Amino acid sequence: MKIWMDGALTDIEKARIDPRDRGFTLGDGLYETIRVSDGRILRLDKHLARLAAGLRLLRIASPFDETALTRALGETLDANTLSDAVLRLTISRGPAARGMAPDPAGQPTTMITAAPYSRPGPSRAVIATATRRNEHSPLSQVKSTNCLDSVLARIEAAERGGDEAILLNTAGRIAEASAANLFALIGGMLVTPPVADGALPGILRAEIIARLGATERPLSPADLTQSDEIFLTSSLGVRPVISLDGRVIPAGGMAARIAAEL
Amino acid sequence: MKIWMDGALTDIEKARIDPRDRGFTLGDGLYETIRVSDGRILRLDKHLARLAAGLRLLRIASPFDETALTRALGETLDANTLSDAVLRLTISRGPAARGMAPDPAGQPTTMITAAPYSRPGPSRAVIATATRRNEHSPLSQVKSTNCLDSVLARIEAAERGGDEAILLNTAGRIAEASAANLFALIGGMLVTPPVADGALPGILRAEIIARLGATERPLSPADLTQSDEIFLTSSLGVRPVISLDGRVIPAGGMAARIAAEL
């Protein structure tokens, strides 16, 4: 596997993250997971815009502009001879001495990896009780590498026999799944939690709201138990939730119809 | 500088974190910052106990037991010929394929670095408005590498002319500083926020509560403005807050007296 790191392609076994990289020591980084279909990088402008918002929030000055990153993504794809793939672009604040405060003179680390794409299957989800997503932090609005709440939720899901977790926010409302947005069909209306409730501004999420007229509104766990259908969206695709906390949800085919429309 | 990584000492310029390490890609790790004074590692049992609690929460099985980690810390200290130092022990879940769910067969990464100790100076603190600490997440109770809320708060502090930030929890109560616990002297009583409000269970914090009789109670920003003294504690020491949001706090010398007592 070839990896692109700070301007050059190299074998992943030889690529090195510095042990002092704040991405490793403090989770001080951002990422995007980008779908490639038939050799085409999907929705790249949206991914780069979200990444830019994250960089601004964290005050990280990327050494590579959007043109350079676009070229680098293409090179990584070509080097791995993949046409249906997942690209992951990660930018961390880079190596630094100890301490929480960033050094404005630090040199960020930029890394791109590629993996073969496989369509996500239907989910047996649980509503996580182990932790809550923090809608009071602006980190809920960018794709940072501080993923431990989602990791804890997925550990809980596995321990309860599920394969996906839905996180509540600190107020007890539905925020999103561990790495996907959530939509529910309730009384004939397609609804999804607002970003103010801790939903990541997902790219497919925005497209479904704009093109299919889904409504953003706060959702409680009780709302979900009254849903006719629930499905999850991420840049990797749309997948139905076929059970929630062990209760079977009838498959209505909405996830498949929406996937086909997008 | 010598670094200890997964069982061996090596030059830090040659040490390598795998680009697929979940510590780098997902912030999936824990750490301890440990003071060394006159060649003696301070409060090591407490640090290892807190680390163990974090490992249990994250379901990471450390390949090194406490005896092995203790030996490794000593070796790292010796290799860097430091006697007043800060050791940092980091354990991440290690390299993995993409995805949020951990692979139970994964091999964690264990890393120890050492740096010369310098006593932290007095703080000009601000109460962060940029973000909130999530007291609803069990991550607030362990020392994980998901540090971005603290990093955001420190960026805000610097932009407002301060050098330390105090974080509120999601309910608007005082939680802690960016990498330290907070104590306040209010009406002759020494008080500190409870861990239920998002205070990390700090090791010096516990010692001050047990030995000096400080009281855990919820604190509001208004409580802080009525404090006669405020000081911060971490494993690196005790330091007074000499101004809060630009308002000068008279130096009462309590931080110095407590540092001397511990």
Describe this protein's structure:
The structure is a homodimer of 262-residue chains. Chain A is of the alpha+beta class. Chain A contains seven helices and 15 strands. In chain A, strands 7, 8, 9, 10, 11, 12, 13, 14 and 15 form a nine-stranded mixed beta sheet that branches. In chain A, strands 2-1-6-5-3-4 form a six-stranded antiparallel beta sheet. The longest helix of chain A is centred in the N-terminal third of the chain and has 15 residues, at 44-58. The radius of gyration of chain A is 19 Å and the shape is globular. Chain A starts with a strand and ends with a helix.
Helices and strands in order:
Two copies of one chain form a homodimer.
Chain A: E1 2-5, E2 8-11, H1 22-25, E3 29-37, E4 40-41, H2 44-58, H3 66-79, E5 85-92, E6 109-116, E7 123-127, H4 148-159, E8 164-168, E9 174-177, E10 181-186, E11 189-192, H5 203-212, E12 215-216, H6 221-225, E13 229-234, E14 237-244, E15 247-248, H7 254-261
Parallel strand pairs in A: 7-8, 7-14, 11-12
Antiparallel strand pairs in A: 1-2, 1-6, 3-4, 3-5, 5-6, 8-9, 10-11, 10-13, 13-14, 14-15
What's the overall average pLDDT of chain A, rounded?
96
Helix content of chain A: 25-40%
Task: Tell me which oligomeric state these chains represent.
Answer: homodimer
Rough outline of chain A: globular
The biggest beta sheet of chain A reads: 9 strands, mixed
Number of helical stretches of at least 4 residues of chain A: 7
Order of helices and strands of chain A: EEHEEHHEEEHEEEEHEHEEEH
Could you say which structural class the secondary elements and strand pairing of chain A correspond to?
Answer: alpha+beta
Which two protein chains have the largest interface (Cβ within 8 Å of the partner's Cβ), and how many residues from each?
A: A-B, 59 and 59 residues
Query: What is the radius of gyration of chain A?
Result: 19 Å
Low-confidence stretches of chain A: none
Distance between the termini of chain A: 31 Å
Q: Tell me the β content of chain A.
A: 25-35%
